[in-house]
Amino acid sequence: MDNNKLTNNSNRLINEKSPYLLQHAHNPVDWYPWGDEAIERAVKENKPIILSIGYSTCHWCHVMENESFIDHSIAKIMNDNFICIKVDREERPDLDRIYISAVTALTGSAGWPLNVFLTPKLKPFFGGTYFPAKSNFGIISWIDLLNRITSVWNDPVIHEDLVASADKITDILIKNLTYDKVFSANEKNKESYIDDAFKYYSSSFDKKYGGFGKAPKFPSPSTLKFLLAYYTYAKTIEEPAIAKRALDMVHYTLKAMARGGIYDQTGGGFHRYSTDERWHIPHFEKMLYDNAQLVDTYLEAYQMTTDKFFAKIAKETCDYILSDMTSPLGGFYSAEDADSYPGQISQYKDKNNKVEGAFYVWDKKELNEILGEDTAQIFSYHFGVMEEGNATHDPHGYFKKKNILYVKHSIDETARKYNLLPDKVEQILNDARYKLLKERANRERPHLDDKILTSWNGLMISAFSKAYKVLGSEKYLKAAKDAAGFIMSNLYDQITGKLYRRWREGERAVLGMGSDYAFFISGLIDLYESDSDKKYLETAVLLSEEYLRLFYDEKYAGFYMTSQEHDKNLIIRAKEDSDSVIPSHGSVAIKNLLRLSKITGRADFGEIAQKAIEAALSASTFHPALFPYMLAVICDMEIESAGS
């Protein structure tokens, strides 16, 4: 290990590039990065491991650090009794997948920060998410938990039971995450599965506010993508009422999100999720993967409806990415934090003063001063601004007397209220937004996670390629080409054929995982279809061949997250089992292989895609809500089959 950077005020994380690990580099906790050094020490000293997983824009990760990991007395307990390892889940989704599944199995739920206790053989025996420094609301404190785990680990009788329990949990994980079994034939046809999925989403649709289920509400672009595909499919089989229902759900949800606080009404782009059912009060972090997928979804909705509102939101989101999330070298950054200082630049120095959403919210007096009272009155009516603040559904009380902008009254309603023409109102609001954006630039910005991930860049390359095709702006094509060029120059070794996952400050690291290959391949195919440069197609084919070699399970079908050579310390070589906030790489790979088969005539690609679909559909654990992206691909296949 390079100890050159180590000081009395830093730990081993000071030598890392991950923004998340660097945030913890000055904790008194003796943190290790994941690797042989920490694991070998745990074995040698027979100490349990604390594996703490999070990411740099995670609000509750910051809270737990500020409450516990900077506390010297708590750090001493951790250092004396445990080997402490920090992992950035965005760099290592493979580790996150394994251990979040373990905590879910143990407790019924999981999230971040993820804190898991492991044996020296890396097998999990206990875990949870956020633990407070002091017990409250029935949650054990972190210090009490540390003392209990220490006591149990050092008790000779209980210790054996604990190790046996870890072995059992690991066996369950292997069974659930590898799916190494021959799937039985299933008599249901593909049409039945996509119909079941449509019925499921219809039943969970929120007719009042849009979206699916109750709060918290996520944008769920894979679900919307399925419904858009099902709309076309239903039209193809001459079911106009069902088709209308599918499109109406998407239309209503996209409008509701774009008019809500989950959308940055001043600067464009979507926040991660809404804490309330109305899409009003967001968790304010902005993720590249959300915005990439939502650009694609809004553009597809625009193509199907010709509603210019959808094109406007897609354009504003693209422009936000170009302005705030694009490296001068061409790649796209990962995320912006939810928390920031509640004041102007350099006004605050203590990171404990950071507040959720401070960069984005406004009080009424402030708006009056910036806009002038007449404009502020029109602006406030349109965006629901109130003297006492409008975040009435704020569960944590973060936004007292503050306003989160959302479209409470339409342009037409605002025009009627103030006896103005709609075009005039739109001009007033646009001018006001420009002034607020300029004023907001004087505030301390949220932390930017500036690492560049191949997989998420692949999603954004796809989005910009599509934006160029639909909206016609050359700057979007240039953005896609620049990002693809950055990945091919910095994260793709053309001699070995290997793709890497992360780049930051000149360093590439972490062997590419299935999602890096699949999403980048998808971006290259989209870029080829927009630009017609064969180098993108040729690279997509080469990477697809490598992807199949590294990740495809030839015996049972399906796709592993990691290659066999990825990391000898993984206790499981896991497969993904769902399309979540990001689609599974297997679902994206299926679409890639079908597209490449059609473009190049490679029948083997199409055959592998079909086998993977059959394996997923015939699994005993299959549920239509788990695979909306893959079912969208099946819809497209059925449409093509009906038209041939």
Percent of residues in helices: 40-55%
CATH topology of the largest domain: Glycosyltransferase
At the first level of CATH, the class of the largest domain is Mainly Alpha
* Shape label: globular
Q: Tell me the number of strands.
A: 16
Helix/strand class: alpha+beta
CATH architecture of the largest domain: Alpha/alpha barrel
Rounded to an integer, what's the Rg over CA atoms? Answer: 25 Å
The largest β sheet comes out as: 5 strands, mixed
Number of helical segments with 4 or more residues: 23
Give average pLDDT, whole number: 93
Gap between N and C termini: 61 Å
Strand order of the largest sheet: 1-3-2-4-5
* Low-confidence residue ranges: none
Q: How many domains, in number, for the residues?
A: 3
Question: Hey, roughly how much beta strand do the residues contain?
Answer: 5-15%
Describe this structure in words.
By secondary structure, this protein is of the alpha+beta class. It is 52% helix and 9% strand. The protein contains 23 helices and 16 strands. It has helices at residues 19-23, 36-45, 59-69, 72-81, 93-107, 142-154, 156-178, 190-204, 221-236, 240-259, 288-305, 308-324, 364-371, 373-383, 411-417, 422-440, 454-471, 474-490, 514-531, 534-551, 585-600, 603-618, 628-643, and strands spanning 31-33, 49-54, 83-88, 114-118, 124-128, 273-274, 282-283, 286-287, 335-336, 339-340, 355-356, 448-449, 452-453, 492-493, 498-504, 507-511. Strands 1-3-2-4-5 form a five-stranded mixed sheet, with helices on both faces. Strands 13, 14, 15 and 16 form a four-stranded antiparallel sheet that branches. A hairpin with a 7-residue loop joins β6 and β7 (282-283).
